[in-house]
Design goal:
Oligomer: single chain
Number of domains: 1
CATH architecture: Alpha Horseshoe
Number of helices: 4
Strand content: under 5%
Order of helices and strands: HHHH
Shape: globular
CATH class: Mainly Alpha
Structural class: mainly alpha
CATH superfamily: Tetratricopeptide repeat domain
Helix content: over 70%
Distance between the termini: 50 Å
């Protein structure tokens, strides 16, 4: 199994979603991909707008050969990040 270098783990645990995300990353590194996917789901129930958890779950799904699940999560990341960039642009426009 590869070392999963693309996983993102937050350094500071501030919310339950962060705790579940970090636990999931640890499970992935230890090779428990199926368990980690369920744990990423807990993070996303706590915060459904958490692109890092979607990204990480997508990577775990890809490593299990679950391409459709991976693509869905990566598309969700793309949409969330696009919406985030749009909201930042609107804030800058109104602040200017």
């Amino acid at each position: 199994m590869n070392q999963l270098p693309d996983y993102k783990k937050k350094d500071i645990e501030e919310a339950p979603a962060d705790v579940h995300n970090n636990m999931s990353v640890d499970l992935c590194v230890e090779g428990y991909l199926d368990v980690s996917i369920a744990e990423f789901g807990k993070a996303l129930r706590e915060n459904p707008n958490y692109p890092v958890a979607y990204f990480n779950r997508g990577i775990a799904s890809a490593n299990l050969g679950l391409q459709k699940a991976c693509l869905i999560d990566m598309e969700t990341v793309r949409i969330l990040m696009r919406d985030f960039r749009l909201s930042i642009a609107k804030e800058k426009l109104h602040a200017g």
